[in-house]
Design brief:
Helices cover 55% and strands 11% of the residues. It is α/β, with parallel strands linked by helices and 603 residues long. Among the domains are: 3-86, 2-Layer Sandwich (Gyrase A, domain 2); 166-272, no CATH class; 406-594, Orthogonal Bundle (Isoleucyl-tRNA Synthetase, Domain 1), CATH 1.10.730. The structure holds one RNA strand of 77 nucleotides.
Length: 603
RNA sequence: GGUUCCGUAGUUCAACUGGAUAGAAUGGCAGAUUCCGGUUCUGCAGGUUGGAGGUUCGAAUCCUCUCGGGAUCACCA
């Protein structure tokens, strides 16, 4: 029952019949609200074929459509725009077909057996400090895109690649060992990731003291940074780690354990999860084996000093080294290896990397190398590149202490939600746990929506004051409209249909004549759910969903305001309006689910 | 410097991928609401889409130049 498809097919037919021309496809759009009609066909493209004026061409096509499609009851022409009017009964029938039904299925059981497999990597934190605002955007994006891809019919595997080793991890280890005095999360009361982060900062502080001392003694800047005693110590520590030194490994495992426990709490609060977690300590040696293969194929080359590189200058990029002269691998080598390993493991159709746009160049190079190495599946690789998060005072800088901590931020949002709710007296009658859940739903919803409504590709400005706002284009506004619908349904249950709520799912017949313009508009918006979902999936953009659901909630809000339901005299109209409201509620809840945002029953 | 991304109401964002008079929110101003929940609704003001050319029926969108801002350009991760 896809009306656009029908119209475009018939338009192609019309062009053939009227002008004996073959056209592959035509594009339709929603009619601009200022004009009469539901769907608009732009005919400018067909003027070459028709050899007639725009108005004339549009009228001829309009006549053909009107007499060949039952649902097309009228049309009008403005310049080259053919505005098509669809019969109200079509929209009513459509509504009946979806009334009370779910809009999405996020379970694996709902997938066809040949569903494409899509791996989505996101989060990918370092284990030397807690998560901050930038990670929050990453996590929310990755999770939401995963849900969107699932709903769009893909078999999605969410993965996390934890950067758990390397020189930066050794920094917090060494600092803790030297100055920690045996402090633990238990003894300090600090969350594990925050405790480790504290020592990462401590290392940096001590390092500065040492290197500036050397500089004062006349050592050059570069030398001073290399020769600072603790810098030499962590390099030694890294060597020990790589050699499998027992004591170093034990320290590493203990501190990473603290961090994981802390991350788990943060992930849980954020509401994100993973199907598979990779650790770089297991994967950092991957990739070397494909080097030989690349050399044999002549794709990779060896320099005089024995280092291996690939020449990408013909593609507008640079030469990229893949193995150092001493045979050790660099970062991208590992990425090559893990990509190959993942393909062998999952035979994915697509692999989506959720990584900030400062790594655009890296992924361009990575994908190109894989392609040159002959991996056909490299066409399915996609860098979900998102913009940086900036604060009103500029970029976040850890040195200046302007980093917004994820845990603190979430707690602030929850506190504000609690304060506002209490102030309005909306928490009355709720148990303590119910109230806590509500505050979390509202506070985190506001945060998530604030970050997801912006096009991922664009950098975003995070204004804490505005993010916590509950008016306008925000999650609480959308949640509020969902709650209103539930209040309506409760009233219906208590006063009107007396526990006979099944009647809401039964089909009603109201005459098309009594369909209000706003109701028709709302049904058309519901009709747009699927194409919105597909667009969001194709563009990997939760923002598309966010805009959709806000629009829907806003339109409903106006409808709710202008159309008293229970005052209506005709009972079949009351029932229809309740059904419409209920289904809009389902659409709102589904959309919010795609964004990883919950909706409360009361607020 | 090379490559690359971005620039839209005071502010934060949209604009169905080249379509009609560039839309929301927020802030400002003016109103409404005996009602199913006021975290509501309505109206007004606010724009040379950074600037200049070009492409065509039609440009915020594509091309060239220019101004301003970000990112990136390791045998770092």
């Amino acid at each position: 029952m896809n009306i656009e498809k029908k119209i475009s097919e018939k338009t192609i037919e019309a062009l053939q019949s009227l002008y004996s021309a073959i056209v592959e496809k035509v594009s339709l759009e929603k009619t601009n609200p200022d004009f009469v009609g539901d769907i608009t066909l732009v005919v400018f493209n067909f003027l070459k074929i028709s050899k007639k004026k725009p108005e004339e061409t549009a009228t001829e096509i309009g006549n053909y459509l009107k007499s060949n499609i039952d649902e097309v009851v009228d049309f009008n022409v403005v310049k080259g725009f053919l505005n098509i009017v669809i019969d109200d009964s079509f929209w009513l029938n459509y509504f009946k077909s979806i009334n009370g039904k779910p809009f999405i299925d996020l379970t694996r059981a709902g997938l066809p057996t040949n569903a494409p497999t899509v791996m989505v990597e996101y989060s990918s934190p370092n284990t030397n400090k807690p998560l901050h605002l930038g990670h929050v955007r990453n996590n929310l994006l990755g999770y939401s895109v995963s849900e969107i891809l699932k709903a769009a019919g893909n078999n999605v595997i969410k993965t996390n690649l934890v950067n758990d080793r390397g020189i930066h991890i050794c920094k917090s280890m060494l600092a803790w060992k030297k100055w920690g005095g045996g402090e633990t999360p238990e003894s300090s009361g600090l969350k594990g990731d925050h405790l480790v982060g504290k020592y990462y900062v401590e290392f940096d502080k001590q390092f500065k003291v040492q290197s500036s001392k050397l500089k004062a003694e006349g050592v050059s800047d570069e030398e001073a940074e290399k020769k600072a005693p603790i810098m030499l110590e962590i390099q030694d520590m890294l060597r020990k780690w790589e050699a499998g030194d027992k004591e170093t490994r034990a320290l590493w495992e203990m501190m990473n354990g603290w961090v994981y426990k802390g991350f788990d709490a943060t992930y849980k609060m954020l509401g994100v999860s993973f199907d598979k977690t990779y650790y770089e300590s297991n994967t950092y040696l991957l990739g070397k084996n494909i080097i030989d293969d690349g050399l044999a194929k002549g794709v990779l080359k060896r320099r005089a000093d024995n280092s291996i590189y690939i020449d990408l200058t013909a593609d507008g990029l640079d030469e990229k080294t893949l193995l150092r002269a001493d045979g050790t691998s660099v970062y991208i080598t590992q990425d090559l290896g893990t990509a190959v390993q993942r393909f062998e493991e999952y035979k994915f159709d697509k692999l989506v990397y959720t990584v900030g746009n400062e790594q655009d160049y890296h992924f361009k190079v990575l994908f190109l190398i894989l392609k040159k190495l002959g991996y056909k599946w490299s066409d399915g690789l996609y860098h979900l590149s998102y913009g940086m998060v900036e604060l009103p005072e500029g970029k976040m800088k850890s040195r200046e202490g302007t980093v917004v901590d994820a845990d603190e931020l979430m707690q602030e949002m929850i506190n504000t939600a609690a304060a506002t709710t209490k102030e309005l007296g909306k928490a009355e009658g709720l148990s303590e746990t119910e109230a806590e859940t509500l505050y979390r739903t509202i506070g985190l919803g506001a945060l998530k929506y604030f970050m997801l409504k912006i096009d991922p590709k664009k950098k975003m400005l995070f204004n804490p004051a505005e993010s916590i706002d509950f008016n306008g284009n925000t999650a609480p506004f959308i949640q509020f409209n969902y709650v209103r619908i539930q209040a309506l349904l409760r009233k219906a249950k208590e006063d009107y249909f007396k526990d006979n709520l099944e009647i809401l799912d039964a089909s009603t017949d109201i005459p098309s004549a009594s369909l209000l313009p706003k109701e028709k508009q709302l049904i058309i918006q519901l009709y747009g759910f699927n194409s919105t979902l597909n667009q969001a999936a194709n563009e990997y953009s939760p923002a598309v969903i966010a805009n959709y659901v806000y629009d829907l909630a806003k339109e409903f809000s106006q409808y709710y305001h202008d159309t008293p339901i229970f005052k209506e005299e005709k009972k079949d109209l009351i029932l229809f309006r309740l059904q419409l409201s209920k289904t809009i509620g389902i659409a709102i809840k589904s959309s919010m689910q795609l964004l990883g945002i919950e909706v409360p029953e009361r607020m």
